[in-house]
Specification:
- By secondary structure, this protein is of the alpha+beta class.
- It has 2 domains: 64 residues, Orthogonal Bundle (Arc Repressor Mutant, subunit A), CATH 1.10.10.10; 148 residues, Chorismate lyase-like (Chorismate lyase).
- The chain has 8 helices and 8 strands; from the N terminus they run αααββαβαββααβαββ.
- A 6-stranded antiparallel β-sheet has the order 3-4-5-8-7-6, sandwiched between helices. A two-stranded antiparallel sheet has the order 1-2.
- A hairpin with a 2-residue loop joins strand 4 and strand 5.
- Helix 2 packs across helix 3.
- The longest helix has 14 residues.
- The chain is elongated and about 65 Å long.
- It starts with 8 loop residues before the first helix and ends in a 13-residue tail after the last strand.
Length: 241
């Protein structure tokens, strides 16, 4: 005769809360129900609720604020590290093998406005740079930061920023990047990129939009990367599970 082992009570609470975060019932930045509310809903004791919340916090799904309760961070990042081109988009040290092409305010294009969730034509700060090598430019990276975030930082200054731009924003503005979204497309190089990259007019390029977000989902910055197809080969390693 087969016996069914009941699911531990804390796992019932844990799986239910995690499922609600995954399906958007509890959005990033939202507060979870109080411990007493969870005890009542699931018919369990406070230690059971605390155990479930502790595991969610340990795994990066939620964060606790003293005296305020628990708040959703969102789906934790996977164990995979970001590809090098993505790290270069937000963490590249501009003082090394980099040429600054433009720093200053511009009006957000449709692509930038969509990534930063702002109206088209809203002023943003642009930092346009390219990475160079003995064989020529290997990428063109345009980083866009909302004015309210850029003000009071070195982002609006023409001098190269040493180290990660995201770390710089975290230090100056107290805004921490929690996760990034990425969109990659392949297309033909456009007229404005031909000279900057030193490629022929029929060159195929990889175009990537990477946007860094706070845990609440609010964008901090977005970077548009253009990589000549003839100078790049992307390789990745990941588990099959």
């Amino acid at each position: 005769m087969a016996y069914e082992i009941p699911t531990p009570k804390y796992l019932r609470v844990l799986n239910a809360l995690r499922g609600r975060i995954e399906d958007g019932t509890y959005a990033p930045g939202a507060g979870l129900p109080s411990e007493s509310q969870l005890c009542t809903e699931f018919g369990v004791s406070r230690p059971t609720v605390l155990r479930a919340l502790g595991i969610l916090k340990q795994d990066g799904w939620i964060e606790s604020q003293q005296g305020k309760g628990s708040f959703v961070r969102g789906r934790p990042p996977s164990e995979r590290s970001s590809p090098q081109y993505a790290q270069d988009a937000v963490d590249l040290d501009e003082t090394a093998e980099t040429e600054i092409l433009h720093v200053g305010p511009v009006l957000a294009s449709p692509r930038v406005s969509a990534a930063l969730e702002i109206p088209e034509g809203t002023p943003v700060y642009e930092r346009r740079r390219r990475t160079v090598s003995p064989s020529g430019p290997i990428d063109l990276i345009c980083t866009y930061v909302p004015v309210e975030i850029a003000v009071g930082t070195d982002i609006a200054k023409p001098e190269p920023i040493a180290g990660s731009i995201l770390d710089h924003i975290a230090t100056r503005k107290g805004l921490r990047a929690d996760y990034a979204t990425e969109r990659l497309t392949a297309r033909q190089v456009d007229a404005t990129e031909i000279e900057a990259l030193g490629v022929p007019a029929d060159e195929a390029v990889l175009s990537v939009v990477i946007t860094a977000h706070q845990s609440s989902g609010v964008p901090i910055l977005t970077s548009l990367i253009v990589m000549p197809g003839s100078r790049h080969e992307i390789e990745d390693t990941y588990p099959l599970s």
